[in-house]
Write a structure and sequence with these properties.
4-stranded antiparallel sheet, 7-stranded mixed sheet, mainly beta
Length: 122
């Protein structure tokens, strides 16, 4: 059974850090681009970061550059999003997704996790 499951969300004060994990099962993660997305109520799900299958290519939305780091461990079939310097505007449900590529902003994502809540109070 193909599955992505996020973990590591929670409540953190401004300036704090969280590390999100995305565990994959049922498919070969190595061949997939992994993306992280954020959604807040009333808004569309927005792109946060992505990483290519080998880990050499990464991409970030401007608002998180220098604060967030995406990484992956294909041997453990897990991807990560290290979030430092968290701000209230980072609040939302974070989803990880896997897609066959190519590594472009318009590439489709095939598999999605159920999401994990991150809350940074104002």
């Amino acid at each position: 059974q193909v599955q992505l499951v996020e973990s590591g969300g929670g409540l953190v004060q401004p300036g704090g850090s969280l590390r999100l994990s995305c565990a994959a099962s049922g498919f070969a993660l190595d061949y997939y681009v992994i993306g992280w997305f954020r959604q807040v109520p009333g808004e569309e799900r927005g792109f946060v970061a992505a990483i290519g299958g080998s880990g050499r290519q990464t991409s970030y939305t401007d608002s998180v550059k220098g604060r967030f780091t995406i990484s992956r461990d294909n041997g453990k079939k897990t991807a990560f999003l290290q979030m430092n310097g968290l701000k209230p505007e980072d609040t939302g449900v974070y989803y990880c997704a896997a897609g066959p590529g190519p590594f472009t902003s318009s590439a489709p994502y095939t598999y999605w996790g159920p999401g994990t809540q991150v809350t940074v109070p104002a």
